[in-house]
Amino acid sequence: MNxxxxxxxxxxxxxxxxxxxxxxxxxxSLRSAIGELARWQPAFISCTYGAVxxxxxRTLDWCRVIQQEASLPAVAHLTCLESTTAGLCDxxxxxxxxxxxxxxxxxxxxxxxxxARPGDFEFAYQLVELIRSKIPTAGIGVAGYPEKHPEAxxxxxxxxxxxxxxxxxxxxxxxxxxxxxxxxxxxxxxLAVLGVEVPIVPGLMPITEYDRVAHIANLCGTFVPQExxxxxxxxxxxRSAQYAVGLEYSVRQTEELLREGVPGIHFYTLNKAGACLExxxxxxxxxxQRGDKP
Length: 294
Description:
This protein has helices at 24-38, 56-69, 85-97, 124-134, 155-167, 181-193, 210-220, 226-234, 239-259, 274-282, and strands spanning 13-18, 44-47, 74-79, 102-106, 139-144, 172-177, 200-204, 264-268. By secondary structure, it is α/β, with parallel strands linked by helices.
């Protein structure tokens, strides 16, 4: 099913994100996690694409697992920075031949060492245009940044970049993870002022440990509310307590977003199902049934 169909007429789309594992043990664990997540009948499961295409074939391999073994739609991530038009066209052809017709079109992180040949792309909107021209019926998602992309000059500039991706043909926006819902809601409203009408889906990661939250905040500049920071700080030496505190916060965050009528929620799973499943069970009564409006 095309990605855009999952949100048509106000329908709610639950989705999950995975990445290609690096070991046989990781592959076995991920297959199990996909099977558990599939019980929630998500709109799709997406699979990431390594920097400069480093996992491009494995991305397609896992999309086949999602579609053939779990009988769910797959969304393949695709990055364009330092890529050539010819290379991306070949990959899109292979994906289409494999039955993958939904994509997350991303610029990608800048490599620490730039290649001698810079590639044909600088911005994600150019990749959206390429996908739309090569596969007109493709479903295309793009990234959004409620707290501004780290490289953007300022928030208005970043919002304009996001709006440009939509004008280029994107069907939905999936946000970087955040811990402060008010920042997401302001972001949603700001894009509406610019005329953006596609679904804006919040991206969430269940909080399970202190170090991970600290790492994300340091890496991405994600704002951590003082309430959450203080709660995790008090239990930073107790892993089970960290999990309980973090999950409680994530449940409250998800509940608030569902009551705000978000069109879906995209969970960053880190290839594990446990925390997502516990969270979803606790907010089950607020999740619209497939086909229902939120």
